[in-house]
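Hello forum,

I keep getting stuck at the same step: I have a sequence, I want structure tokens, and every attempt I make locally crashes halfway through. Rather than fight my setup again tonight, could one of you with a working pipeline run this one for me? It's a single chain of 316 residues.
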Amino acid sequence: MMMCLTAAADDDGRRLDRVLRKALPGLPLQALYRLFRKGKILVDHIEAGPGKRIKAGQIIELPRTCTPDPQPPGKTHPPSAPPAGLKVLYEGEGLLFINKASGLAVHGPDSLEEQVQSYLKDKTAPSLSFRSGPLHRLDKPTSGLIVFSTNLEGARHFSRLIRERKVRKLYLALVDGTLLKSQIWEDELIRDKKLQKTIVVPKGEISGDAKTGRTLVSPLASAKGHSLILAEIESGRTHQIRAQAAEKGHPLSGDKKYGGKALPGKTLRGGGFFLHAWKLEAEGRRIEAPLPENFLAAITEFFGKEFEGKFQGNAE
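Reply #2:
Ran it on my machine without issues. Output:
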């Protein structure tokens, strides 16, 4: 008996093997290519190889006994409410803009990705190979804006904008010390996987694994041994702002991994630091993510109440 899968719009133009790897995640890769070698995979009743480009509407056939049933594709239903804790700022053009909470992982069990999949499961068009996913990085301790795709076209378009550096990403951070003037931080960064830490390569040294990190920094306020900064990253390296801030003598306040001084318990219970992906601008659109309440409280405590309503967020 044969299993029949129907290619949808988001499968159009993709290689057959990649479509099946996404559609049948429980099928071992070796078993999939064994089916190809034996001519057991058909497209519109004709034997097909792994490199065949699929068109929307085509029927893919393979033995039902050789593989588990795929997960049923999504169905189109009226919009549903976001899961508890999922803060959707804007949805449209194949993209989903979310305000992530600090301490929430983007991937893995009990993650933001699971929340997004739950939110989109009855909203997205059927597809064998497309799955919504984050289009850029955001560390677990960092709060704020992160973008997920809701269709293949949106994913490709936004990824292209990032490659072409047409997306502005601005962060707010609380750092140690007094920062009095705008600066450009440009360093060679290398990732120490054992320490799970990003290292700034000393000036004059060469490392083939290093990647350039460039961050534009502007001070917004300074008081009580801390500064509130606006940081625009022109490259997206892991822990880029944290590592560069520490190297420049202004580690994020409370960021023990990079040498930051502990914040008072009343300011940030349980330890940690304040780094928030605040604003994203692309193609004339600007979206802001409101700051977490404890970050706003810290800003007010250190710099005064004039900052209370400044970072509430909006979408244009």
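The first helix runs from residue 16 to 23. If your local run keeps crashing, start a new thread with the error log.
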